[in-house]
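Example record used in the benchmark description.
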Amino acid sequence: VRLSEMCGQLSAKVSLLATRLEGVDCPDKAQVVDALAPHADAPTTPPTTCFFAPGEVVDSVPTSCCAETPEASTTTSVVDEGESTSARDFLVALKQMETEVALLAKAVMSNQREMTDRIGEERSVRRAAEAVLDARIKTVEHQVKRRSNGGSIPGDSRVHSPALTPASSRANLGLQGARHGVDRRTS
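Model output (structure tokens):
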């Protein structure tokens, strides 16, 4: 859910940047907007000034909108040069953000598929482990029932009688040691 929210936020930022692009004066701005942000609307009236040099290319989009002569472009103020740089930076940032949103969407889809596959694998491993543990639990329960009924546990070489408890078994070991001259209680 968080990844889709992030994609939505990035998409909103791209739309916001495309909307801000409408403030840039360039007669062929519609072409630039269409190339950079396909969801932005083209302006209805063409602006009169352009911040790009004639024939300049910004992120593979030619700026043919500039029909000014070099003399006319030298009469622009320092503020216009600053705006030109910021408009160019703005277009570059917009194009980069659009590319990043597309890459993020691909990564989200890829990660979603990968996570779904991993979850499926983990689920099958968990089910197999549960089946093994259930079988082991049933075996232990069966052995406990047999032992409580007086039977022997398979694989156990000792035969347990109901009268023989662990305490009496220890006492018998002590007596056997005393018979052989060894006192196991003191050693």
